[in-house]
Design goal:
Order of helices and strands: EHEHEHEEH
Helix content: 25-40%
Number of domains: 1
Distance between the termini: 17 Å
Shape: globular
Mean pLDDT: 97
Oligomer: single chain
CATH class: Alpha Beta
Number of strands: 5
CATH superfamily: Glutaredoxin
CATH topology: Glutaredoxin
Amino acid sequence: MAQEISDAQFEQEVEQAKGVVFVDFWADWCGPCRMMAPVYDKMAQKYPQIKFCKVSTTENMEKAGEYGVSGIPCIIVFRDGKEVERLVGFRPEPAFEAAVKKYA
């Protein structure tokens, strides 16, 4: 399962992290977000060498605003604390896994 983090934890868990971190900005009222959740969690289990985090934009708007998240789900890929890729919208499992494999 992906780790749910807050704005307060973001710096330590993502911006100061070494290696690759996927961050899913989502909301519980968002249909595509709910469709993406099991795919995201499956990749978190399949690729334990990559860190997978989730940020609820309903409860934590600060970092979503800071990173200019306008459409959700928005998965931002960080490497050593810097944004390297952004995936907006639902991705079926094969497409999302192809994106993950680039960093595995």
